[in-house]
């Protein structure tokens, strides 16, 4: 198993075809991998730092889109991991700001939630630039476990938050 992962790593790093494979085989030795140090493979890698990498925008249009002061941005939301009891209520919350006021759309497992037997969305506004949205599923079933997202968008930007949920069984 370790050999397969190692081979895939070599092909990915080197970006070579099978004919060029032999010229790339010495690369991991230069960056600290291979040999008896297999357990310490990550030590010599280039991206072992915990400092986030800031990717520069490729053009000025990207800067004006992603860093627009009027763009939609979620300023408050529910916690990422949520465990619910079967038959009880699942509730997620998102608050977004932007000018014009953003719209909030809810998704489950990448599919927009607009029709669900027990699904309700409550929205209210504050001022000209803020919207609050609360999504509820009551009562929750096993099928409601999954990956939820709230997406805020206006004409300047899109922002989203993700939530993972799973059910808990109550044992007596």
Give the gist of this structure.
This protein has 172 residues and is α+β, with helices and mostly antiparallel strands.
Protein architecture, described:
It is a single chain. The chain folds into 2 domains: about 1-45, no CATH class; about 70-170, Immunoglobulins (Immunoglobulin-like), CATH 2.60.40.10. Helices cover about 15% and strands about 35% of the residues. The chain contains 4 helices and 9 strands; from the N terminus they run ααααβββββββββ. It has helices spanning about 1-15, 20-25, 25-30, 60-65, and strands at about 75, 80-85, 90-95, 105-110, 110, 120-125, 130-135, 145-155, 160-170. It has a 5-stranded mixed β-sheet, with no helix packed on it. The longest helix is centred in the N-terminal third of the chain and has 13 residues, at about 1-15. The protein starts with a helix and ends with a strand. Mean pLDDT is about 75; it is low at about 1-45.
């Amino acid at each position: 198993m370790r050999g397969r992962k190692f081979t895939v790593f070599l092909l990915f790093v080197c970006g070579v075809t099978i004919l060029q494979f032999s010229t790339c085989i010495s690369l991991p030795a230069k960056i600290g991998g291979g040999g008896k140090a297999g357990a310490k493979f990550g030590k010599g890698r280039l991206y072992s730092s915990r400092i986030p990498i800031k990717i520069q925008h490729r053009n000025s249009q990207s800067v004006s889109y992603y860093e627009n002061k009027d763009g939609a941005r979620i300023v408050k939301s529910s916690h990422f991991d949520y465990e619910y009891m079967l038959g009880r209520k699942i509730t997620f919350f998102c608050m977004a700001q932007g000018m014009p006021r953003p719209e909030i759309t809810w998704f489950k497992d990448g599919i927009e939630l607009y029709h669900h037997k027990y699904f309700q969305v409550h929205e209210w506004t504050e001022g000209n630039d803020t919207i609050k949205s609360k999504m509820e599923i009551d009562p929750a079933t096993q099928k409601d476990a999954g990956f939820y997202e709230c997406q805020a968008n206006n004409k300047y930007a899109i922002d989203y938050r993700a939530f993972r949920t799973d059910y808990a069984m109550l044992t007596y």
